[in-house]
Amino acid sequence: MKRVILKDRPRGFRSTGIVVKDNKLLLMKQVFKGEAFFTMPGGGWEENETLEDTCKREVMEEFTIEVVVGRCVYLLDSKTRINFVFECEYVSGNPELGGPEKERMNENDQYEVMWVDIEDARNLNIAPKETKKALFKYLDNRNVPTFFETIVKTLNKNILLVSPQNNKVPPDGYGGIERIVAEAYKYYTAEGYEVDVISKEGSKYHTCTMDSLEDLNLGKYRFIINYEHDEEVVKKLTNSGRRVFVILENNFAKKLMYVKDVDDAEFFVISPSQQKQYRKNLGITLDIKPNSIDTDFFRITGTYRAKDIVYIGGFGQQKSLISCIEYAKKHDLSIDFYGKDIFIDSEREYQKEFMKAVGEYNKASILHEVNDAEKVKLLNGYKYFIFLPSVDKDTWVEPFGIAPLEALACGCTVITQFDKGGHLSFCTRENSISYEDAPKTLDPEKVRGSVLKFDYRSIFKTYYPK
Predict the structure, then answer these.
(1) Residue 283 pLDDT greater than 90, yes or no
(2) Whether residues 127 and 250 fall in one domain
(3) Residue 311's pLDDT band (cuts 50, 70, 90)
């Protein structure tokens, strides 16, 4: 039975043997995914063993060689355990692979045990390099007193957070992703990291804007967490050679096709539904990494709602704006559109039809863009929030929508479709209604309570490197 011995070295003790016969050194050659390196016989200490017992057992298990264990030559300290390295006298046996290495041999993981001339071993890739240095310090002077080596290095604690579209971090109002970036900043600074943030000029947490990305020494960062989905930005970050995490939040598939071709970044989605959409539409499967949401939305009170339907978002064909109006007209409900124009040139005819439909329906209005500070109050005044991406344009374009989540958290009943879009993570038959069905107002408190809450602190600890 194995157990943790040292709190700050959770893998405890390891014993390793230096076995020499006829000026040859006993080594194991390992080839992992095409990369070859060599190791000495050894393994983890087990309860009721002496460290010498561990060394003797490991040499026999891995190499089928009988040895007599001598003095401890040196100690090698790593971040996870302390390795005691012993000189060993060869007794009998021929090198033959055994132990767990033999069991886990496969196409990508190969093992071979052998005797190697000591002089030839000087040119081998013996891992880790600190072990090789200590090994030859002993072999060059076998009377050297027991010594100590360490492979514990000073951890690089520089990281970079990239907020989307140069947004303000934290936001002036309630915000969305910008608040998550701010929480990440607070978490990592509390953990002792030096955190740089690409954000809007004037942000509380701000190092530079996206325009200054070229001037940053990206090589200094241990890792980069990126919330910006622009392809050129992702390429610049991955060209740094650093570990780059790209969090895929609210965006359109046509902008994310490059995800399939970028191998140097680690892309994550935040829900099983979003994962399913990527697999279905792009043919790829991405790891799920849950993300935090704006918990302030859960503090809302008040249930009186004088107005019918609200739409908040960009004005484009992929948002199915005409279908939104048609639903309101069919059920004689008012509808207010808040947002900004994101129509592209190929959608100008659709834009004209939308403007005409608004003009012909006296209960429809196009109003101003909503900032985060007023969004909660606005949502509190409406019974329904409508969200119909892809109904008017039969393609998958919205892998994730945070707007329905915000609306649910404010107690609005969401009018949606249940077969497209990552909002399926949050919209259910209990808190939303289909645009094909007649409207019915659901209990705002139950709607609000149905929204899944994420604990951003546990997420950072679980999914981002320390």
Answers:
(1) no
(2) no
(3) very high
In a domain, residue 22? The reply is yes
pLDDT band for position 124 (cuts 50, 70, 90)? very high
Of 203, 204, 216, which is closest to residue 242 (Cα–Cα)?
A: 216
Instruction: Extract the tokens encoding 195.
Output: 């955190």
Identify the helix (H) or strand (E) that includes residue 66.
Answer: strand 66-77
Determine the structural domain holding residue 102 and report its residue range.
Answer: 13-150
Number of residues that this document lists for the chain:
466
**Phi/psi at 57 (5° precision):** -65, -45
- Which of 113, 130, 150 terminates a domain? The answer is 150
CA dist 17 to 40, 71, 130, 293, 370, Å?
7, 10, 16, 52, 69
Q: Are residues 234 and 312 in the same domain?
A: no
Token digits of residue 64? 């089928």
- Please name the residues in contact with 432: beta carbons below 8 A apart, sequence gap of 6 or more: 404, 408, 413, 414, 415, 416, 418
In the chain, % helix, strand, coil (3-state, to 5) comes to 35, 25, 40
Residues forming beta bridges with residue 397, ordered by sequence position = none
Whether 310 and 286 share a structural domain: no
Q: Are residues 282 and 169 in the same domain?
A: yes
CB 247 within 8 A of CB 268: yes
Q: Which of 114, 130, 150 corresponds to the end of one domain?
A: 150
**57/226 Cα distance (integer angstroms):** 48
Query: Alpha-carbon torsion 357, 362, 363, 367, what sign?
Result: positive
